[in-house]
Structures are given as C-alpha cells and as structure tokens.
Amino acid sequence: EAQVTQNPRYLITVTGKKLTVTCSQNMNHEYMSWYRQDPGLGLRQIYYSMNVEATDKGDVPEGYKVSRKEKRNFPLILESPSPNQTSLYFCASSQTGLSEKLFFGSGTQLSVL
Amino acid sequence: SQKIEQNSEALNIQEGKTATLTCNYTNYSPAYLQWYRQDPGRGPVFLLLIRENEKEKRKERLKVTFDTTLKQSLFHITASQPADSATYLCALLPSPLDYKLSFGAGTTVTVRA
Question: Per-residue pLDDT tens for A38-54?
C-alpha cells in the first residue's frame, strides 16, 4: 500500500531534550516536506527536499533541522525543543513537488513541556 | 504580504444541499490551486487540482472554479452527505517552478442528516 509513515504518533518531551520524528515513504517520490499545523494558522511549511541531499527552508524553519540521505526517509530533528514547538506535525511527499498532489502522513502530535 | 483566506466560520448545512467554500488569495499569481480534505486527527487527503488556465474542474459531486481576476477559488459539494463533514483546505503553488505549497487555514463543514 502506498503510504507515508510517521513515527511516533504522539510525543511528550521536555524543553531542551533533542528529538527526532521519522518519516518514510514507499512511493519512490522525489519530493518530501514537513509541515506544522496550529489552530487558526493552517499548515505551515518547515522544510522541504527536492531529492536526496537537496533540502531548503520553508516558511518556519527556525529551531528545526532535516536531512535527506536516502530517497525514502526525511527525518525532522529538533535539537533543543521549546514549548512554542508544541504542534501537530505532518510529513508529505509527492512525485516531483511541482503541481503534484501531496500524500500526507498521519501526523505526530508533539507536546514540549 | 502573501495571504490565503478561507471562509472564517464553519459551515453547517442540511443533507442534500450544496456547500460552497471560498478561497481568496492576495499577492500571489498561482499557477495551480489544490483542495484537500482533512478529518480530525488525520493527514490531509488530496481532492482536486485546477490550473490557472482552467475555469472549472469536476470530480463526482465536487466542483472547483478558479478566477484569477478575482483571485478566488470556489469549492462546491453538491448533494452533500453527513460523510462529507470534514475540514477542507485550499493550497496554492505560487509558480510552476515553486516547491512551496502554501495552505489556507481551512473551512470546517458539518452536514446534518
């Protein structure tokens, strides 16, 4: 089954404790992206990747890191989480990223205390 | 600044009626516009894509229009059903070579039986 898999589904952590949210897709897509969703603000893009070893900042990249060493994986790293990073996070992928529909993961609800 | 605005209030309609959602944008000249459906706690699911040179697109009971002069897209759900209850997001790609898909905050639709 074609899918984007994120883990974990829920995560509670404390300020300053490094964490990684994993994302994997099995569709051989070139393009992958991370979004955060907050009430009233909609989905905001954090980082995106056009292909392996090609990443770029989205609209809200501060406090986040990404890497794309393999085509299928695109982890989101929070080196020193802060409470304002409490949010619902989605990973998404598409064939090329240009006018293609996005396939989204099920989301990761992160709470930073 | 660039902005995407959707109906600010939730839409409550009777089963069988047509739901009409609006998506207005400013300071964009999008080549494409997409609509997604999101159920609570789930990732968005792609519904329709319409290009700037297309006035209207249909898929089953869904219809999307795109007016680049008014800078507006309308999304219609005809013969609505309770199963159509969800949040609907519009998203646009600023240009054909742009990897940043920007989303509106969404409109929540509730269809009463």
Answer: 988 889 999 999 999 99
Supply the pLDDT for residue B50: 92
Contacts of B69 (CB under 8 A, 6+ apart): none
Number of neighbouring beta carbons within 10 Å of residue A39? 8
Contact B49 A97 (CB under 8 A): no
* Residues across chain A: 113
Residues of B at the A interface, defined by Cβ within 8 angstroms = 4, 31-32, 34, 36, 41-46, 49, 51, 89, 91, 93, 96-106
pLDDT digits (tens, 9 = 90+) for A9-46: 999 999 999 999 999 999 999 999 999 999 888 899 99
Burial environment of residue B59 by CB neighbours within 10 A (0 to 12, 13 to 18, 19 or more): exposed
Of B93, B102, B104, the CB nearest to A99: B93
Concatenated DSSP letters for A32-95? Answer: EEEEEEETTTEEEEEEEEEETTEEEE-S--TT-EE--SSSSB--EEESS--GGG-EEEEEEEES
